[in-house]
């Protein structure tokens, strides 16, 4: 492939237009009409760009439908949000839990550390626990990744921002699994250092293996810090407990997950994959219409290259099930294995968005900067210098290049989170032994309805795309 030609790459405004189109669907949840509309939109763009063999690949995945949910404490209904994957006692089925009437009460266990449960009888009760996310900063990232390289010519990453890591396990989910193990009937998580809201969406079922848990069986809901203060006050007034009720009715059923794929043939059938995920809980402009739209930009750009000038085949994909256990990612890998396709590299792009921090009242305030970018590069790719040069050449600032030695996880060993693992949609590709270059950012609003097109820094879209075009081009020559 010829050197990257910026004049032929889509403009930031064009990329932003694709983001707006996807966000306009309202949400893109797996197994819904909106999720299918998202897949069809992406497939239509792939066909417009003349990609070959454009497919919407279907596989089945268990999807949740919350039909009823209500938390009441001391006679007051508290605004809450169902905690993803909880209240589930089998792969599929309807699971209704009603904790109410005489003896139904909430008790507070602080952070929910092991010592907080010592001598406490929480059997049959609704356990309330603080959820305390870990600080998110350059310092903490470098502690977890001592080999990191930082491209921050204006030293903006040294500026202290009031931000937290809402993605990595912290005192949750261990406090939840301790409550479940101790016989609690339900769980309420107070989002202490999150936006003053209750919209949070993460699935940590696999983290229960160390507690002997197969599912997150007891129902759980999230509440805001402000409402958490109300609950704790009621418990204190009640001498350690307060009357409460929790009703959660959730149904899990198998629905189609939709991966979208398209191919640009090269001189070799060995393939470089370029992907992001298209499903979203809310409008999902940043997560991950931004990543999908960068994939569209790269597909449009490379489609203009004659087949004879592509050393490797390029596959473009938008995956599903980012929020429902990643089953479509496994289906994608199985499909590639069945067709005999050798994936040399996964290039994954996620979350091009503005940075926010929390004010004293836990409101999200934009800092005027782009969210810092973490770019994982597996050692096995041999592309660390290529990635660094591309970031610098296209001025993709506030970037942390994180070399990782990603060894496949031993399936016989219970999963245990490691701070230096790949925390992105590329995780299962790396776990399958595929080298990855994966950009992801940790905005605090990604699980919140405020993830709208207004959060997109339009002037950042094209430089990111150009950098990844260069990375892809060089990878095709070297691998």
Q: In a nutshell, what does this entry contain?
A:
With 479 residues, the protein is of the alpha/beta class.
Give a structural overview.
- With 479 residues, this protein is α/β, with parallel strands linked by helices.
- It has 2 domains: 278 residues, Zn peptidases (Aminopeptidase, 3-Layer(aba) Sandwich), CATH 3.40.630; 163 residues, Glucose Oxidase, domain 1.
- The chain has 10 helices and 20 strands.
- It has a 16-stranded mixed sheet that branches.
- Strand 16 and strand 17 form a beta hairpin.
- Helix 1 packs across helix 6.
- 51% of the residues are buried.
Helix content: 25-40%
Helix/strand class: alpha/beta
Give the radius of gyration.
Answer: 23 Å
So what's the oligomer here?
single chain
Mind sketching the topology for me?
Blueprint: H1 12-23, H2 33-48, E1 52-73, E2 76-78, E3 81-82, E4 93-99, E5 105-108, E6 126-131, E7 134-135, H3 138-144, E8 149-151, E9 164-165, H4 174-181, E10 186-191, E11 220-224, H5 225-237, E12 242-264, E13 268-277, H6 285-302, E14 312-319, H7 327-338, E15 343-349, E16 354-358, E17 364-370, E18 373-378, H8 384-393, E19 399-404, H9 427-431, E20 436-441, H10 458-478
Parallel strand pairs: 5-6, 6-10, 10-11, 13-14, 13-15, 15-20, 18-19
Antiparallel strand pairs: 1-2, 1-12, 3-11, 4-12, 5-12, 7-9, 8-19, 12-14, 16-17, 18-20
Helix pairs in contact: 1-6, 1-10, 6-10, 8-10
């Amino acid at each position: 492939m010829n050197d990257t030609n910026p004049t032929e790459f889509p403009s930031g405004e064009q990329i932003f237009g694709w983001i707006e189109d996807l966000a306009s669907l309202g949400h893109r949840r797996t197994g819904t009409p909106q999720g299918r509309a998202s897949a069809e939109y992406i497939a239509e763009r792939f066909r417009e760009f003349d990609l070959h063999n454009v497919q919407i690949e279907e596989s089945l995945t268990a999807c949740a439908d919350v039909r009823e949910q209500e938390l009441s404490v001391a006679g007051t209904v508290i605004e809450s949000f169902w905690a993803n994957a909880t209240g589930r006692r089998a792969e599929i089925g309807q699971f209704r839990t009603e904790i109410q009437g005489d003896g139904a009460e909430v008790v507070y266990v602080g952070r929910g550390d092991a010592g907080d449960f010592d001598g406490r009888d929480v059997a049959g009760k609704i356990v309330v626990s603080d959820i305390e996310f870990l600080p998110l900063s350059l310092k903490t990232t470098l502690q977890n990744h001592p080999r990191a390289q930082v491209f921050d010519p204006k030293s903006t990453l040294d500026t202290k921002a009031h931000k937290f890591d809402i993605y990595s396990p912290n005192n949750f989910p261990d406090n939840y699994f301790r409550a479940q193990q101790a016989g609690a009937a339900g769980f309420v998580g107070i989002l202490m250092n999150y936006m003053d809201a209750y919209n949070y969406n993460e699935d940590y079922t696999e983290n229960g293996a160390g507690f002997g848990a197969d599912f997150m069986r007891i129902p759980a809901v999230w509440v805001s810090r402000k409402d958490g203060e109300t609950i704790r006050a009621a418990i204190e007034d009640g001498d350690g407990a307060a009357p409460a009720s929790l009703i959660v009715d959730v149904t899990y059923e198998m629905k189609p997950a939709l991966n979208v794929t398209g191919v640009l043939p090269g001189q070799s059938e060995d393939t470089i994959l370029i992907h992001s995920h298209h499903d979203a809980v809310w409008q999902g402009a940043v997560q991950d219409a931004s990543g999908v739209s960068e994939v569209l930009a790269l597909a449009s750009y490379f489609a203009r290259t004659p087949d004879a000038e592509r050393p490797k085949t390029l596959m473009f994909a938008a995956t599903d099930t980012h929020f429902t256990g990643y089953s479509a990612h496994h289906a994608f890998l199985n499909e590639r294995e069945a067709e005999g396709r050798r994936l040399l590299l996964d290039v994954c792009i996620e979350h091009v968005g503005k940075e926010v921090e929390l004010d004293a009242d836990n409101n999200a305030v934009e800092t005027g900067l782009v969210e810092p970018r973490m770019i994982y590069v597996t050692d096995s790719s041999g592309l660390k210098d290529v990635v660094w040069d591309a970031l610098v050449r296209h001025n993709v600032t506030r970037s942390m290049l994180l070399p990782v030695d990603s060894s496949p996880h031993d399936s016989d060993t219970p999963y245990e989170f490691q701070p230096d693992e790949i925390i992105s949609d590329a995780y299962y590709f790396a776990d399958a032994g595929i080298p990855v270059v994966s950009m992801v950012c940790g905005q605090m609003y990604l699980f919140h309805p405020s993830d709208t097109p207004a959060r997109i820094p339009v002037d950042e879209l094209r430089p990111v795309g150009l950098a990844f075009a260069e990375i892809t081009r060089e990878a095709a020559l070297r691998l």
